[in-house]
Design goal:
By secondary structure, this protein is of the alpha/beta class. It is built from 13 helices and 14 strands. The radius of gyration is 22 Å and the shape is globular.
């Protein structure tokens, strides 16, 4: 019999760092070149090959990638950009910072993704761009949303922060169009922090490369090495300082080699959760899309039935902590957060489906080094927390 509660805390996510990851980073540290250089070029090429896309540019985060893309696409004052409120706040923040108006589309209650039906009503003559999110490892309906936007000449950036290795139909996310990926430590592969812009647009990638490094046409590797040339060096347009380092790239290269193994393990654990949760009617996993896809199980999100369990989701998550189980909330609706309420005037009632799931959802622990016994512990803790919640009432 295993003790309950377990004696150590199970976090909701842990990066898997193995000896070859550490060796790769150590080799770069000893090499004499640690900022953007040959390892970053190698990682960009390996990632582009992995996605099957022609161009990839690594940056300090997916947020940095989105910032640079909004600038490259001239998004600003007078534009509206549609995105879900059910996403990480970085996207809405960047839209607001650009001077454009973030406009939120509601989601499908089952998959938590925006759809043509929820986007169409919020399109206006000012809509320049839509940023849908491939959510939790599942793809959004790319063909259906693209068809809606192409008719109206509206641009699309795919937020693929959760979707490294995800397929939509027979296409890998990132293979065509423009997508951003994240390598934050909770993601399916990590570089500590980091992101990648993938695109099939050669002009756009040139601009992303410049904008991520002060707007200069050459980076340090191109200037300081013997093969490179010192000048001329000019700012072509004001840019940012979002360049990736070779230290991070070494980690990215070794993680990428293991991604399929990591994703396969995530899938096994997710299917095991599916099985066990059939016996916990108060907890329902979110749905998976009905169109063909390959899920990468970035997050295992469930909904708490707050009609049957008489505490709020946040109190329930504190109860789970007492049983040594960590969780995440992906996400709290962006439009109900202070700035978007007080400055932009968004209110509860605007996005009924988003608000309904935002009050109920949370993410269970899921990472490749978890064991089946960890999953057993999580489900036992859910059952115990439900009993405690009923006693608390
Ligand atoms: C849906 C989504 N988009 C964008 C981001 C931003 O990624 P990063 O932390 O690499 O900037 C995240 C981060 O978690 C995310 O979940």
């Amino acid at each position: 019999m295993r003790p309950f509660p377990r004696d150590n805390f199970l976090p909701f996510s842990l990066p898997v760092i193995e000896d070859d990851d550490i060796q790769g980073v150590a080799d770069v540290l000893k090499s004499g070149w640690i900022t953007t250089g040959p390892k970053t070029a190698e990682f960009e090429k390996a990632f582009a090959d992995f996605c099957g896309c022609p161009h990839a540019c690594a940056l300090t985060s997916a947020t940095a990638g989105m910032h640079v893309l909004l600038k490259a696409l001239n998004i600003g004052e007078g534009c509206e950009v549609i995105t879900p409120s059910m996403t990480w706040v970085s996207t809405a923040n960047l839209i607001a910072l650009s001077g454009a108006k973030p406009v939120f589309a509601d989601i499908d209650r089952s998959t938590l993704m925006i759809t043509p039906e929820t986007i169409a009503p919020v399109i206006s003559e000012k809509t320049r761009l839509v940023i849908p999110v491939h959510f939790a490892g599942a793809p959004y309906d790319v063909d259906a949303i693209s068809a809606l936007l192409q008719e109206r000449n509206i641009l699309m950036i795919e937020d693929a922060a959760h979707a490294v290795g995800t397929y939509y139909k027979e296409r890998k996310v990132g293979q065509s169009g423009t997508a951003i990926f994240s390598f934050h430590p909770i993601k399916n592969m990590t570089t500590g922090e980091g992101g990648m812009v993938c695109t099939d647009d050669g002009d756009l990638i040139d601009q992303v490369r410049r904008l991520k490094f002060h707007g200069l046409a050459k980076d340090a590797w191109q200037r300081y090495t013997k093969k490179g040339s010192v000048g001329p060096l000019e700012v072509l347009e004001p840019g940012f300082k979002y360049n990736f380092t070779d230290i991070q790239s070494a980690l990215g290269l070794s993680q990428l080699k293991k991604l399929d193994r990591f994703n396969a393990r995530r899938k096994d654990l997710a299917l095991y959760y599916d099985e066990l949760l059939k016996n916990v009617p108060e907890i329902t996993p979110i749905g998976r899309p009905i169109y063909p896809h390959r899920h990468t199980h970035h997050l295992y999100i469930v909904l708490l039935d707050i009609d049957k369990v008489p505490v709020t989701r946040d109190i329930f998550l504190d109860l789970l902590k007492q049983y040594q189980i960590g969780t995440g909330v992906h996400f709290r609706a962006a439009h109900l957060q202070h700035y978007y309420r007080e400055v932009c005037g968004y209110r509860r009632g605007l996005l009924p489906e988003t608000e309904w799931v935002s009050d109920r959802l949370f993410s269970l622990p899921l990472f490749p080094s978890m064991t089946e016994n960890d999953v057993n512990d999580v489900v036992q803790a859910l059952q115990a927390a439900i009993v405690s919640a009923r006693k608390e009432k």
